[in-house]
């Protein structure tokens, strides 16, 4: 027969076990980061509680507590599975939670404070993705694409794909594809319409989705543990089989005089110190995973492998040529330190001067079609001039669907990595220009993994 004390002990153990089981968030990791994958125009970031806003840099890791604010600009945030969040001019978003469960499931909470945001959720199994705006909250568990707009007197959610569940003071609301729900901010009443009124930036959002879908499909992503950054790798460079080294990736427009640390910045994080942030639009995955290798006669290439490094504090460089110094973080201070040693492609009116050794810096993503072909010309001539559509960053296209407006945004040459020129929006039914087949021999020599379909092994 058990004693009263042992009985009490059993009750305490059972109670503690039940409490622990009901609080899975205790074990959550909050060191997860996502990618600031694209910026145009005026974009600022605050990287935590009490932090002031500063100029945003493309490829800057975004951690829990960060805020993004646009004035006359646009920005895109890319999550590990390739899901995206985009904001347009005069918008503010916050990331109150970016965590990782013990199970590996990712928890992402985004709060739209003002303006307009587009969400394209990939629907990864077990991941938890929610968006708050005003008194409303959206939970998505399956693939969905929707727009949130906050105005002075009302807010709305338009669903382009999938289905979303909303929790609001008026109750639970289900919004299906091609439906719009509008909330009156004064009365807390809502209206559900079975149509979508097209907003000025819808075509720009579609263009970015088409870019990701097209080039992610060409990336044969077996080389990275995550999907974010792979579409940029597929557009701005290619994999080749280098004799003696195996499969390696090299950016287009990169000659023997280029190295992977010519343009970027050392950014400070209060918990981690300085980390390298690449200015190149493709500069995410190759600076958090694998190694940069110098190959005599070929130049610098990136080789996948090893462990993913969230905060790129110390570049991993192999077989560096004589005279090359591995970059090192500043020893003191907390201010961002810009490194701007390389060349960039720049706009002159409505023409883009694409320069060899720019490694794609200044080239708007997806707008030159076959970048391999342009790279071949630039390598033989030194530079190539391409006519480009012009589009003001500050103003949306006039006329709604398929509209356009002229006006160029001058390129500053600063290491932002994104285009300083707004992209020409297209209507939802209009595809982006298709790329031509990848020629053999572009970039590094050897067969391209895009056409062969093989996954590049790592050493």
What is the overall silhouette? globular
Largest sheet: 17 strands, mixed
Strand segment count = 28
Strand fraction equals 25-35%
The span between the termini is: 64 Å
Number of domains: 2
What share of the residues lie within helices?
Answer: 10-25%
Multimer state = single chain
Q: What is the average per-residue confidence, as pLDDT, rounded to a whole number?
A: 82
Q: Any low-confidence stretches, pLDDT <50, length ≥5?
A: 6-26, 391-459
Radius of gyration: 24 Å
Count every helix, treating DSSP H or I runs of 4 or more residues as helices: 5
Structural class: mainly beta
Walk me through what this model shows.
The chain is mostly beta strands and 459 residues long. It folds into two domains: 29-200, Jelly Rolls (Sandwich), CATH 2.60.120; 201-459, no CATH class. Helix content is 12%, strand content 34%. It has five helices and 28 strands. It has helices at 4-21, 202-217, 230-236, 371-381, 449-452, and strands at residues 33-40, 43-46, 54-55, 61-63, 67-70, 74-78, 84-87, 92-100, 106-121, 128-133, 136-140, 144-150, 154-161, 164-168, 171-175, 179-184, 190-193, 237-242, 246-251, 263-269, 273-278, 291-295, 299-303, 317-318, 337-340, 346-348, 351-355, 383-387. The strands form five sheets. It has a 17-stranded mixed sheet that branches. It has a three-stranded antiparallel sheet with strand order 21-20-25, with no helix packed on it. β6 and β7 form a beta hairpin. α2 crosses α3. The longest helix has 18 residues, at 4-21. The radius of gyration is 24 Å and the shape is globular.
